[in-house]
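ESCALATION

Customer reports they have been waiting on this structure for their group meeting. Please prioritize. Original submission:
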Amino acid sequence: MASIAVLGSTGSVGTQTLEVIEKFPQRFKVCLLSAGKPSDKLLGQVKKFRPSFVVTQEPPPKGWIEELPQGVRHLSGNLGLVLALEKCKPQKVVNAIGGIFGIEPSFLVLENTDAKLLLANKETVIAGGEFLKPYLERIIPLDSEHNALFQLLENIPKRFIKKIYLTASGGPFRGKTLEELKKVKPEEALKHPRWKMGAKITVDSATLMNKGFEVIEASYLFDIPIDDIEVLIHPQSVVHAIVETVDGNMFALLSPTDMRFPIQHALFYPQRWETPFQRLNLLEVGKLEFEKPDTETFKCLELAYSYGKRGLPYTALLVGADEGAVELFLRGKISFTDIPTIIEKTVEKLAPRWEDLKRHDIPLAVKEAYGEALKG
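Update from on-call: job pushed to the front of the queue and completed.
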């Protein structure tokens, strides 16, 4: 039975991870759960899965710890996380923490354990990708696109790869003009046509910044030049990645728009197991469409390509600036089309200050960019 730690267990990916684990009680044991806040939802998860440790970033309210089942120990902060990881020694750690607060936990797992890191926090790779090189063999990506590439590239030698393609649904505003985008509201941006995700990543999908992030992420994870990574708008969202080989053939991975599929793959890797979830029915899909993204209207995608080619510190600052700009939009402080403007202004302003960025400076640089972007 494999021991699993789930960081960010109350979020979208964390919750779905526990759904998968629950389907295989003879295969997996949850030894650690973590979340930012000690909520009722987290307490319910602890009571169901009975981990040895539960870690929160914020201190629990009065009476919360007393509700924990016997034998479950509560610890706080990143130091508590390191201690819990050392004690329970998980074989695999799922990092499902959303946004910039998931970066440091990823490095804590890699630097303090021998566990495989099942990584859904793309900010880790974008902000710190150049420092992940010693650990790449221990990382299994959970993003549907990168998990698809992970599976495809296992069977295709790198010397035979011509190009890789990442697909995007196009988000809720596909086909809209720049003038139309100036008037959209946060609640409209949160209506993703295909995926059920957290608010921040859903807005990133609407701006296409999420896909730009994934281009950078793929470049770091698989050591592929950014110029050899192309984005395709694919409204059906069943083709998650395509690899083109030098002889003109293309290999694609297709699966339902359901995060439980890449999660199950990563939990069982290198084995495969019969899935309990609804499989893809190609007859129901009917057709597969692909089109070029509109980068003149959705400027975040080109911005990500530009900063991805420049590397650190631009990629790290991009992560923080985007988090701040999206937060402003969700608060109703700026328009949707202001997001790329604020991101670019923030990154260009702070880049000279972080020219010699070191590994332990990454969280500081990201948080400074986040704070600077919040100024508008």
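Sent to customer with the following note: DSSP finds 16 helices and eleven strands in the chain.
Escalation resolved.
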